[in-house]
Amino acid sequence: MSPFTKLLAVASIEFRVALRNRWLILATGVMTLFSLALTFSGAGGLELKAGILTLAAASLATLSVYLIPLIALLISYDSIAGEVERGTMALVLATPISRGALLAGKALGLIAVLAIAIAASLTISSAAAIFAYGMDMSGLAAIVRLGLTGLLLGAVFVAIGMMISVASPRAGQAAAVAIGVWLVATVLYDLALLAGILADKEGVFTKALFPYFVTANPGDAFRIFNLAGLENAAPVSGLDGIANTLPFSATYALVGLFAWLVAALAAGYFQIRRLTP
Amino acid sequence: MTAGTAQNPILKIDGVGVTFADLKALQDVSFNVEPGEKLALLGHNGAGKSTLFKCVLGFLKPAAGRITVAGDAPGSDHARRSVSYLPEQVAFPRMLTGIEIITYFAKLKSVDPREALPLLDLVGLSQAGRRRVGDYSKGMRQRLGLAQALIGKPDLLLLDEPTSGLDPVSRREFYEIIDRVAQEGAAVLLSSHALTEVEGHVDRIAILSKGRLVADGNIKALAEAARLPITIRIKAREGQADALSDRFGGTRINGRSVELSCEPGAKIDLVSRLTQRREEIDDIDIALPSLDDIYRFYSNRAEKGDAA
Ligand SMILES: Nc1ncnc2c1ncn2[C@@H]1O[C@H](COP(=O)(O)OP(=O)(O)OP(=O)(O)O)[C@@H](O)[C@H]1O
Ligand SMILES: [Mg+2]
Asked: What domains are defined for chain B?
């Protein structure tokens, strides 16, 4: 059997376990609830020139920055450390599967969970909006873009969660580190950047460095890319305003996301090679 | 290639040492396992049995010595294709069924799952195959672990305390399966806490004590080499116990009995001297050293050697 077949076997088991542990239904349920709520709460100001789905895409882009990394970290932090703790990792590593294929297979299975949750929630909320307010083609494109880049954002955090899981001797410790990473990546990092701008008063930091710093954060990169795609159709505020003033194309934000994915997977691979079950 | 046993051992352990911080978990351990051989590795808690298994699997790199599995380094692709492992504590994902788990491990081992699934029948889990492992009893999980280890006819089975938690009937079934795979040519290395448990089921035993190999051989030879004393208990007739103990020495126990011990070689002589006192004796009981005595002898000998 080829390494790829084994990788798929790992992915399918990982997916099944997540399914039976109710992670899939929980992730899909939470994301559907939030998408529906945001879609319909934006519908109040339909006098605006933008369509309902465009507005929904804007608010979903902001919310997904918190929700997708959180779900991705929650489903991945246990994936390696938990198996080491329960003793199944020793069994798996005693078989002739390469550790790289094991890591990649597990990541693939978990990303599939996210893919279904994202696709289902966006499909349900968009269908409901179209049914209630009629078609909005450009908004639909924005939603599709949001879903695909949201999956990329989720993949980045699945890879980060697995890297944490490989490096942690205990699942409990992995959970604590994962929550810490989520706080820093989604809240504290942006707060620090805002503080920098306030202190700097239009200096070198704000003009030259800030755009790069903000794009380096996967969550911000995701938001910038999606908001730039909306082309001022929706009202934006705060840090997001800079999406329109970047000194480079917003597509580079996507490059940044891919770079994070590759880096996190590489770090996880480096760690899993020295894992002692 | 190297000088060694006449045959071609599937597992060679040569001078292996493992140290954790300042604890010497294994010191200068050497032995081989031949194809078709069943070897029990005995030792107290913390003797180093599981540590040795982890070295053979390539999870731990010994600080000293050398291990080869099927001629290759532990953990290499070829070594992993030759070895199967049943860990001491195995908790399969609770949400998966027995069938799913066997299918999964068959794929990891590049074996067609259709060939592997009959193993569930072999270990007596054909009815439970569709149920979730979370609902299995401890013995059922152990059986599933064994089925997993048998996938793909491995050349070497490493079973870490495989019979702990099994009832006597299951234990006998377990050893019947082990016999069968050994007859087909697989080598079996299993660990256990008690000699009584493996007696009659393995060809050879090796005893680890505090990380050192203190005995290696078949049970009969080890028992003879230990030269443990034989215990003879005499039940005296009314009022004769004092006379008997004056004559033969030994210790008085519960009023009417005297307990003597003698070298294995002196047994016949002592018994014939006893029978000359036929009229003073009600009954005689001869107790050979038990397996536990033999096991304790080898384990303790090493500890005394340590202290010296
Ligand atoms: N990863 C580790 N770090 C530090 N010490 C360890 C580690 N693994 C094992 N040890 C120590 O090495 C010694 C041997 O442990 P091992 O698990 O091999 O014993 P064992 O013979 O399998 O015992 P048991 O019958 O209880 O399973 C013990 O003293 C244990 O504390
Ligand atoms: Mg052990």
From this structure: 11-224 (3.40.50.300), 229-288 (3.30.70)
